[in-house]
Amino acid sequence: MGLSARLALSAAGLALSVGAVQADRLSDCKESHNGAVRIKACSEVIGAKTTTPEARIDAHRARAEAYGERAAYKDAIADYSEALRMKTDDGASYYGRGQARLALNQIDGAISDFTQAIRYSGEQPGLYVARGYAQLVKGNPNEAVADFTVAIRLDPKNASALNNRGLAYRKRGDLDNAIKDYSAAIALNPIYALAYNNRGYVFEAKGDRQAAAADFRRALSLDPSLVGAKKGLKRLGEPQTVSAESDKLIAEGRALAEKNCAWCHAIGKTGDSPNPRAPRWRDLHKRHPILALRDPLTRGIARPHDEMPKFELSDDEIDTIVAYINSLSP
Fold this sequence. Notes:
Elements: H1 3-31, H2 35-47, H3 53-69, H4 73-86, H5 91-103, H6 107-121, H7 125-138, H8 141-154, H9 159-171, H10 175-188, H11 193-205, H12 209-222, H13 227-235, H14 244-260, H15 284-287, H16 296-300, H17 315-328
Helix pairs in contact: 1-2, 2-3, 3-4, 3-5, 4-5, 5-6, 6-7, 7-8, 7-9, 8-9, 9-10, 9-11, 10-11, 11-12, 12-13, 14-17
């Protein structure tokens, strides 16, 4: 074999090797369960000169998802925006950016992004639920009802959409329809703690103390971190035995917060956060006024994010943090 042939074979082998390495990097970027590995791999794919435009878009989107999981929402928005600069009809990036904007309380931007996601991705129940939730947070219950209604039409067994529409009905004062939706959600999912909790609020507002207490007890038995149900039982003068587990979760959550989070966040009912960029936990209800929804915003503060020390919390520990955060709301 001549020198030129050997050189050609060597170059071909090198190209195949580089291609395989890049394929592995893209696979890690899109599929790794480790957020740090995903971000590193995506950054390498984005920075490589040989990356195709399609792969670069995928990498920006995947890195944005990893940033979002770490509550690095500004970085997530930047990556989704770059993906959209390259592909203006990317419905998935509009949806992801909308979720990140919602987490930062950029409600108008979130609604706009969810609208674009519906435009380019078609009628999907989750997209209407997302926009309906944003409308609810913004204080537009009529628009929220409309979006949740479309989601339910597309997926009649969507218990979450029914629960959320119940919240929207309650927000606009339509208590009877709210009860119907909560009851429908419970019929689909008999262990739906949030729906029991939310229906309990409406029964209480209607003066049906017995039905309200029954729902609050059921909600707490299913999810002791639902502090609103505990407070409801107290308002109704009901025995507090069922809420003992809730008290335990709150105490454990405060202990975890003092150990791992107080260096950055104001975790109590007074004082400012040592880190000015870190939200005070008692203010979270202002960013997310419907705490009963247990939106990822509430859980996000308990997930590792970029300025936090690198410790991991189990799902049970996160529930204690959620219970403690909920106990701070008025």
